Amino acid sequence: MPKNKGGGGGGNKGGAKGGKKGAKSDGDGEDGSSGKQKKGGTAVKVRHILCEKQSKALEAMEKLKAGQRFNAVAEQYSEDKARQGGDLGWMTRGSMVGPFQDAAFALATSSMDKPVYTDPPVRTKHGYHIIMVEGKK
Predict the structure, then answer these.
(1) What would the pLDDT profile of 115-124 be if each residue is shown by its tens digit?
(2) Which of 17, 39, 52, 121 is 20–30 Å from 1 (CA)?
(3) Which of 48, 35, 130, 51 is nearest to 89 (CA)?
């Protein structure tokens, strides 16, 4: 007799709890994933030079206007983790802050030898960005 009581009661409780938890987590995961995929659509391969102060960003821009390569100026002036030539890689729509994204998608594609970049620098909550786009898809 004791085996039936313990086995039957434990099985019912465990099954009910497990079912509810599983349903909730599945729903959350689907919502989060589908939201990101919808925003993705197009992407840009972007480089930038980020400076906290506008004066430093303008100084970097003068170097670009003088003919220096974008990646060399980024290594010297950029103040973020993308100091290796300013390369941020492929960024999808919705993954960037508003003003940065608007500027990046508006720019024409260019090369580091003859960059087409944002002039004046774009102001965001992170600082002043000089943005260059190497590719679009």
Answers:
(1) 999 999 999 9
(2) 17
(3) 48
